[in-house]
Amino acid sequence: MLPRWIWGLACIGGVILYLLMNQISRVRYDKLIASMGIESKTARWLSAPLLWLEKAQPALDTHPALASLRQAVMQIYGPAHSHTMYRAVMAEMALYVYAALLAALLMPAVTDGSFTNMMGGLLLGIILPLARARDVINKAESKRQELQLELPELLSKLTLLVQAGETAQKAMALCIERKRDQSEHPLYAELNRMMKDMQNGYSFPQAMEQFAKRCAIQEVSMFVTTLLINQRRGGTTFVLAMEDLGRQLWEKRKSVARKRGEEASTKLVFPMMLMFLVVLAVVGAPALLMMK
């Protein structure tokens, strides 16, 4: 056990050290943080963690334990920005660890000064980074499911337009135009970006390949590959290939919808248990009072 003022001084010293390091390294990482496009409230505190992780970044980029996190970041932001955003996520996790260490010093300072009270802050240092990593992985999974749910519908409309006499490129443009009100949807956001790439000089196959890389899921890769292989053939060959792929994607959509239903039912278990306890208390309390 140490005097409370020592814990307080250590906490204040840690805060001052962090502020100094963050201010010194801000000039070095201003452009990198600006390119991340993250919220200003978070970005202003990332300079120091980026400096801490600079030498360890090559190991973090290849460590097998972080493979799922790297894959999730690439699915969310695409291959062009994945490394930058991965550095941002790792910096945020390092920031949470440092904040938890400061909390571990603060808790003995406001209590009795014992080492036991540090455990709460140290526990936060484990929970908060894991929670941040889980949040990124959940966002990537949500985006993947949104793409899997919407892609079969896009494919059906595309096939009908091609059957009606449109070219694959023109049919794709029509499908995107009709979904302009859903531009925030992950699929149509990436398709709108694909159309901008074509306006900037990319050919249709190049823009579609970039679209598949940004989405980074198997179903989109299958869609792009089938479309590019069969678009020049046209006619019944193209339609049959699209219909066969459509059947596979609709089955995948059913699987995703079933999975979401199971997750929703699982989330309802806890509220139902609370409701059961409330009903039990309402019904059982009068009986217990009568027995007394």
From TrEMBL:
<feature type="transmembrane region" description="Helical">
    <location>
        <begin position="6"/>
        <end position="24"/>
    </location>
</feature>
<keyword id="KW-1003">Cell membrane</keyword>
<feature type="transmembrane region" description="Helical">
    <location>
        <begin position="268"/>
        <end position="289"/>
    </location>
</feature>
<keyword id="KW-0812">Transmembrane</keyword>
<dbReference type="Pfam" id="PF00482">
    <property type="entry name" value="T2SSF"/>
</dbReference>
<feature type="transmembrane region" description="Helical">
    <location>
        <begin position="93"/>
        <end position="110"/>
    </location>
</feature>
<feature type="transmembrane region" description="Helical">
    <location>
        <begin position="116"/>
        <end position="133"/>
    </location>
</feature>
<feature type="coiled-coil region">
    <location>
        <begin position="130"/>
        <end position="157"/>
    </location>
</feature>
<dbReference type="InterPro" id="IPR018076">
    <property type="entry name" value="T2SS_GspF_dom"/>
</dbReference>
<keyword id="KW-0175">Coiled coil</keyword>
<keyword id="KW-1133">Transmembrane helix</keyword>
<protein>
    <submittedName>
        <fullName>Type II secretion system F family protein</fullName>
    </submittedName>
</protein>
<keyword id="KW-0472">Membrane</keyword>
<feature type="domain" description="Type II secretion system protein GspF">
    <location>
        <begin position="155"/>
        <end position="284"/>
    </location>
</feature>
<dbReference type="InterPro" id="IPR042094">
    <property type="entry name" value="T2SS_GspF_sf"/>
</dbReference>
